[in-house]
Specification:
Blueprint: E1 3-7, E2 13-17, H1 22-31, E3 38-42, H2 48-59, E4 63-67, E5 74-78, E6 86-87, H3 89-92, H4 102-109, E7 111-115, H5 128-136, E8 140-144, E9 147-151, E10 159-161, H6 167-178, E11 183-187, H7 193-204, E12 208-210, E13 216-220, E14 228-231, H8 236-248, E15 252-256, H9 264-272, E16 276-279, E17 283-287, E18 297-298, H10 310-317, E19 322-327, H11 338-343, E20 347-351, E21 354-359, E22 367-369, H12 373-385, E23 389-393, H13 396-399, H14 405-410, E24 415-419
Parallel strand pairs: 2-15, 3-14, 6-7, 10-11, 18-19, 22-23
Antiparallel strand pairs: 1-23, 1-24, 3-5, 4-5, 7-9, 8-9, 11-13, 12-13, 15-17, 16-17, 19-21, 20-21
Helix pairs in contact: 1-2, 1-7, 4-6, 5-6, 6-7, 8-10, 8-12, 10-12
GO molecular function, one term: UDP-N-acetylglucosamine 1-carboxyvinyltransferase activity
Binding site for UDP-N-acetyl-alpha-D-glucosamine: 96, 125-129, 308, 330
EC number: 2.5.1.7
Length: 426
């Protein structure tokens, strides 16, 4: 099992490039199910979740070609024949995004059998919003032995108000509605850039969609979609992680190939912490402004502060003068990194959904355990400023969502190396 070894103390200097967004690429790959034609996706990140999605689509009968290097992270997907519309548990048990094939499968084939999703154990992410929406569109859904089975002759347009904002629920039902009969209106929709990215692909495939990126989306169903070419958005969470890496190490780091408009909440908070920020058209430069200052955050749906940046921000807060309050409103079990940070010397207390971080505290090297994707990134950030050599176990969590993470950091001065088998390299 792979480990990272990180020696702290180096400021990060130079330019680091952001990859495509895993959380955009996964639903866009699922959208290829909706057409018999070829869908070409560019800027696909080389991460484990993408490989899992490739296996999933291939197991259903799709032809999937993942190209990296000279192919510029381009993926060709052709779902001409879906001979086995089943998302098998042994394939999807490590990935939450398995639920994203439910809507497109039933819309395209009239039947879908999908294992209940896995992924990071950061709290309940109920699939009932997917089920309720598809049932409102005319599907019959049963649950049996850990699988959801859905059937429908053809989905019907529906007016759906989400009980709570859900990114994957919005995406799943959006894909289903493109081939439904009549008009669908969805309210209280997720407004994340990943939803907008998916909608852009669907529109390129011939879907009729209005309002993506707002709370209300209207979809006029069509009889058939066609192939398309689409470039995936930059990964705003990877970009944010690198911005914090530059800030926490007191470096001068240019985060390139990103979309600054998607980073507004984080940039504003870093400025409150005393970090100097320069924003360009497709890059953000972060520089030390002296001692970091404490600032509170509350995670919210986009455009609020993202839950996927909470753990990384907490690492930064340990190095800020004063007391920072971190309130987690999205997932109820997303403080699993806290005990590992405390092992490194952090002063953090938890009460319910609130963590109180008292800084500045010197961090020390330790052997720590990665519990989920973003917690892994948080511990790497803490290790970058810890005294001595920190060993991080179970970094396979990090490989799910960050492309060549240690190589990118090493390129700007971090002392980080991987021990064990290396994903994606021969």
């Amino acid at each position: 099992m792979d480990k990272f070894v990180v020696r702290g103390g180096n400021p990060l200097l130079g330019t680091i490039k952001v990859s495509g967004a895993k959380n955009s690429a996964l639903p866009c790959m699922a959208a290829a199910i909706l057409t018999e034609d070829e869908v070409i996706l560019e800027n696909i990140p080389q991460v484990q979740d993408i490989e899992t999605e490739r296996k999933l689509l291939t197991s259903m009968g799709a032809e999937v070609e993942l190209g990296y290097g000279r192919a510029q992270h381009r993926t060709h997907i052709k779902c001409a024949i879906l001979s086995d519309p089943v998302a098998k548990y042994e394939i999807v048990k490590t990935m939450r995004a398995s639920s994203l094939v439910l809507g497109p499968l039933i819309a395209r084939t009239g039947i879908a059998r999908v294992a209940m999703p896995g992924g990071c154990a950061i709290g309940g992410r109920p699939i009932d919003l997917h089920i309720n929406g598809l049932e409102a569109m005319g599907a019959t859904i049963t649950q049996d032995h850990g699988y959801l089975e859905a059937r429908a002759d053809r989905l019907k347009g529906a007016h759906i108000v989400f009980d709570k904002i859900t990114v994957t629920g919005t995406e799943d039902l959006l894909m289903a509605a493109t081939l439904a009969e009549g008009e669908s209106i969805f309210e209280n929709c997720a407004r994340e850039p990943e939803v907008t990215d998916l909608a852009a692909l669907l529109i390129a495939m011939g879907a009729k969609i209005e309002g993506a990126g707002t709370g209300t989306i209207r979809i006029q169903g069509v009889a058939k979609l066609h192939g398309a070419r689409h470039r995936i958005n930059p990964d705003r969470i990877e970009a944010g992680t690198f911005l914090i890496a530059g800030a926490i190490t007191g470096g001068d780091l240019n985060v390139d190939c990103c979309e600054p408009k998607h980073l507004g909440a984080l940039i504003s908070k870093l400025e409150q912490c005393g970090v100097k920020i320069d924003v360009g058209a497709d890059h953000v430069r972060v520089r030390s402004g002296g001692e970091l200052k404490a600032a509170d955050i509350t995670t919210e749906e986009y455009p609020g502060f993202p839950t996927d940046m909470q753990a990384q921000y907490m690492a930064l807060a340990t190095q800020a003068e004063g007391t920072s309050t971190v309130i987690e409103n999205i997932f109820e079990n997303r403080f699993m990194h806290v005990q590992e940070l405390i092992r490194m010397g952090a002063n953090i207390t938890i009460s319910g959904r609130t963590a109180t971080v008292r800084g500045k505290t010197p961090l020390q090297s330790a052997a720590v355990m990665c519990s989920d994707l973003r917690a892994s990134a948080s511990l790497v950030l803490a290790a970058l400023v810890a005294d001595g050599e920190t060993i991080l176990d179970r970094v396979y969590h990090l490989d799910r969502g960050y492309e060549h993470f240690e190589e990118k950091l090493r390129g700007v001065g971090a002392q980080i190396r991987r021990m064990g088998d290396v994903f994606g390299r021969k």
